[in-house]
Amino acid sequence: MIQILEQYLSVLVLFLFAIVFILLFIIVNKLMGPPKKEIKNQFEGINSFVAYECGEVPIGEAQSRFNFQYYVFALVFVVFDVVSSLLVAWALIINAKAYVSGEDVIGVFFSAFIFIGILFVGFIYWWKRNALRWM
After folding, report:
1. In this structure, are residues 94 and 108 in contact, taking their beta carbons and an 8 Å threshold?
2. Three-state secondary structure call for residue 48
3. Is 80 found in the same domain as 44?
4. Which of 110, 78, 77 is nearest to 94 (CA)?
5. Residues 43 and 79 in one domain
6. Angle between helical axes of 106-128 and 68-101 (0-180°, round to 10)
7. Predicted TM-score (pTM) of this structure
8. Which residue range forms the structural domain that includes residue 119?
């Protein structure tokens, strides 16, 4: 039982350390921060609830329609970004494997070309549906 307590003693010390620092920062913020101003009526404090946009008074509602094509372009970018990262890692591993063991890596190249081919089929699908056309 004592061994278990000794194992968790460092966790307890770290937890207490975190609580002390949080309380310390809250107290320092209260002491050194600007004093809180009381709002006397509803119209005096209305500007404190308005979103700040470069000093301009916001016009209209904050919620607006979002064009779906931005999402499609972001998704295509993420897919090709992940694919390029995967292919770079794949190329480095193949280079190391061929250098260290001197094996024939034709099969691995073939699997990478199959992977790129599947991605190309998806790209052609998006192209045919005009999903990649901008506006």
Report:
1. yes
2. helix
3. no
4. 110
5. no
6. 170
7. 0.42
8. 68-128
For the chain, 135 residues long, give each residue's pLDDT as a single digit of tens: 677 777 788 889 999 999 999 999 999 988 888 777 665 655 555 555 556 556 666 666 767 777 777 777 788 888 888 888 888 888 887 777 776 766 666 777 787 888 889 888 988 888 888 877 765
Contacts of 98 (CB under 8 A, 6+ apart): 105
Scored b (16 or more CB within 10 A) or e, 56-79 reads: eeeeeeeeeeeeeeeeeeeeeeee
DSSP 55: T
Retrieve residue 60's tokens: 């209209």
**How many domains does the chain contain in total?**
2
